[in-house]
Amino acid sequence: MPSNGPPKTEPRSPEALRAEIERTRAELSTSVTALREEVAAAVDWREWVRTHPMAAVGAAFTLGFLLGQRR
């Protein structure tokens, strides 16, 4: 016989719901902090130069060359 919808669960107590909300809030806070750190590292030009030194030199050379050609 096919089942009709999701299985029935018993209602949780207010204390259990509050505990789950607090646990979810803590997980969300940790995720937001990690995301902030990743974004800060991604847009920090010093970090980019540190991890890609040859590309940074190439970009600086190209930009200097292009700006020098404008005259």
Automatic annotation (TrEMBL):
InterPro entries (UniProt xref): DUF3618
One protein family per Pfam: DUF3618
Organism of derivation: Stigmatella aurantiaca
Name of protein: DUF3618 domain-containing protein
